[in-house]
Amino acid sequence: MNNHYLLEEGQQEAAIEAFRVAHEAHAPEVEVQRGTWSIYCHCKHCGEIHTYEVENEARERALGLPPWQEEEEEEDKEEALFNLVRGR
Ligand SMILES: [Zn+2]
Questions:
Q1: H-helix or E-strand containing 42?
Q2: How far, in Å, from the CA of 1 to the mean position of ligand 1?
Q3: Domain limits, the chain
Q4: Cα Dmax for the chain
């Protein structure tokens, strides 16, 4: 059995978890390989292979989104530095 699924960005962990739970009894025979945008899950006991791939659209969204958190941190640092310089 070979199943291929499309995922939204951020669903990778849930997909791996779901596969692990489904094959909990065969945990020693479960092989999981995780790439940036794709996951390969194989249960040797069942001969079942599930492959997951992040949708193209979701990939583009993930790549296109600005890193808000980091930018804010940068701004905070700059502001702190500015205040420090101004305070002198
Ligand atoms: Zn299994």
A1: strand 38-43
A2: 11
A3: 2-87
A4: 70
- How far, in Å, is the centroid of ligand 1 from the Cα of 79? 55
Q: What is the pLDDT of residues 22-58, one digit of tens each?
A: 999 999 999 999 998 999 999 999 999 999 999 988 8
Six-digit token string for 73? 């941190």
Q: Which residues contact residue 45 at a Cβ distance below 8 angstroms, ignoring those fewer than 6 apart?
A: 23, 25, 26, 29, 30
> Does pTM surpass 0.85?
no
Q: How far is the CA of 28 from the centre of ligand 1 (A)?
A: 10
| Whole-number pLDDT of residue 87 | 65
Cβ neighbour number for residue 84 with a 10 Å cutoff? 9
